[in-house]
Specification:
Layout (H helix, E strand, L loop, with lengths): L5 H17 L3 H26 L11
Length: 62
Amino acid sequence: MVPKDGDYFAVQAALARQRASAKAGGRDSRVAGHLALAYAALARAKSERASAPRGDEAGPMG
């Protein structure tokens, strides 16, 4: 499996938001909206992890 970075998930979130707004409502729209939120959360987490300090600065769990 190829690792994904924050940019990948940000693009996926944008695509899911487009799909959600293109739907007429209902279940498909809600599912696309939930996917957009999940992808956006993954993008934030990946970005935060990538910018976190490494080594001794990373905290007690290192």
